[in-house]
Amino acid sequence: MAITEEKGTISIHTENIFPIIKKFLYSDHEIFLRELVSNAVDATQKLKRLSSIGEFNGELGELKVTVKLDENAKTITVSDNGIGMTAEEIKKYINQIAFSGATEFVQKYKDKGEDQQIIGHFGLGFYSAFMVAEKVEIITKSFREDAEPARWVSAGTTEFEITQTTKEERGTDIVLHIAEDSKEFLEKFRLQNILDKYGKFLPVPIEFDGNVINNTAPLWTKSPSELKDEDYLKFYKDLYPMSEDPLFWIHLNVDYPFNLTGILYFPKVKNELHLHKDKIQLYSRQVFITDEVKDVVPEFLMLLHGVIDSPDIPLNVSRSFLQADANVKKINAHITKKVGDKLQELFKNDRKSFEDKFDHIGLFIKYGMITDDKFYDKAKDFCLLKNTESKFYTLNEYREHVQANQTDKDGTVTFLYTSDPGKQDAYVQSARKRSYDVLKLDGMLDSHFINTLERKLEKTNLKRVDSDTIDKLIDKGIANESVLSEDEKTKLKEVFEHTLNNKNLTFSVESLPVDELPVTITLPEFMRRMRDMAANGGGGMAMFGEMPMNYNVAINANHTLINKILKSEDEAEKAKLVRQTYDLGLLSQNMLSGAELTSFIQRTLELTK
Fold this sequence. Notes:
Blueprint: E1 6-9, H1 17-25, H2 31-52, E2 65-70, E3 75-80, H3 87-95, H4 101-109, H5 122-127, E4 133-141, E5 150-154, E6 159-164, E7 171-178, H6 188-199, E8 206-208, E9 211-212, H7 229-239, E10 248-254, E11 260-266, E12 280-284, E13 287-290, E14 305-309, H8 326-349, H9 351-371, H10 373-379, E15 384-386, E16 392-394, H11 395-402, E17 413-418, H12 425-433, E18 438-440, H13 446-456, E19 460-464, H14 470-473, H15 486-500, E20 505-510, E21 519-522, H16 525-535, H17 542-546, E22 551-556, H18 560-567, H19 571-588, H20 594-607
Parallel strand pairs: 2-8, 12-14, 17-18, 17-19, 20-22
Antiparallel strand pairs: 1-6, 2-3, 3-7, 4-5, 4-7, 5-6, 8-9, 10-11, 11-14, 12-13, 15-16, 21-22
Helix pairs in contact: 2-6, 8-9, 9-10, 9-13, 18-19, 19-20
InterPro entries: HATPase_C_sf (IPR036890), HATPase_dom (IPR003594), Heat_shock_protein_90_CS (IPR019805), HSP90_C (IPR037196), Hsp90_fam (IPR001404), Hsp90_N (IPR020575), Ribosomal_Su5_D2-typ_SF (IPR020568)
Protein name: Molecular chaperone HtpG
Family: Belongs to the heat shock protein 90 family.
């Protein structure tokens, strides 16, 4: 049937739709190419579907989508040899913007299965072309027998024109006449980058500049049973060419109650939380959507790398942003469970290998335990604690390891830890003299992790090894005998207070072992923890980072140097010894530097003469 030339007005349900499309609907103008290529893929997939159910009996031929750039003509053309359109279908799917051809197609054939291959919504997606084009042409021929080719053209107003044209092969050509303010898209390199970003894994070959730019069957679309480790590692290198090999990976493959595929890789990370975010790519039926996946993936797994693909994640009309939805929560929970199951499996199957990887894995696990109670319940069985001798224990194993020797008079088990084994070595050694075990908790999340453990573990507290004198760290109710009387203790305290004259110091005279330091300087555990959390960005803790340091100074009543201070009648010598023992305490905490350190060295040389 011959096509009657026709002019008319596009039927729209919103006034001034074109300015809205151009300025507000799509935040990034490069999206036009994603939309047009996705629509061309849709048209191709529709034809394949009709062929498979016997509603198209012609030759499919080589199905593909082609993107052509003509810099001289200032045009970009997106072509497919898919289903095509009749003039009536153009009126229906293009002129009535609020109607979606893809939606109607899926509804019509949903009972015949495999409707998941249809990507998008042709109506608004097509009109994204007007963000960059001053005029758009559609030249199309339907797959239907005896269909007449048709040409549609609009200059970005509500007016259009449909005419008869010549086109031998079925399919559709979308010709964009690029506007003056969008000339950047007439550069081959620019188009190549957009196609690489959004079309790298589309399910139909995409040809640009004589080359197919995409992998139509990416790894996540395949069954895990047909893949080898080398395949996963190669795919990882394709995604992240500059990264080290990952530790391991999880292949997601779910079709009920939602559709979800993907591969999540565990990269090698230690204390670089911020450097590794935005590394998971979200796809919808192999079309790249975004790498901002915070609602789909739990916060603690944002450090992972890889790909997630789901048509069941709801997007806004421009397919640029996620929308809140029950499926998103279900997918989030499923990913959390799969990660937990995988870690548990690795721990049970090869504990030694798990321990070797724990310096990297531990960041994920601790982050999850801090932020997700359900994950904590699963992870508590495979989360490892590492002591200063580099031995690993689960939470239960460690409690059994230390409870006989590190239980205080109230029945509370104390886990001692160091946040810096080098700087706190004197205190670690002091603990070891008592056969106490000391954990190494020096990661950026450990100040928060410690709080989580104290909240979750019954009758257990954690204390930094330099937060108090050794007998007070684990108070067993046994008092050491003192060689000093109460009057001598009072006199000694007054000497230190007068000599040092520092209002931020709180002095006490204690009966400590003779092999302990003459003066021990500590910052209370609470204050230490608050300052550590403030340093690591703990919410509401900034005030602690700005508060002045208030130290406890414990004077060892049983040390020979302290007795020498007490018995000395030379005030100058007494003051020198007070300063020397105090500086020794500072030195043990790595708190002595600059002019004070120089004075300490000179004073030491004088005292040894």
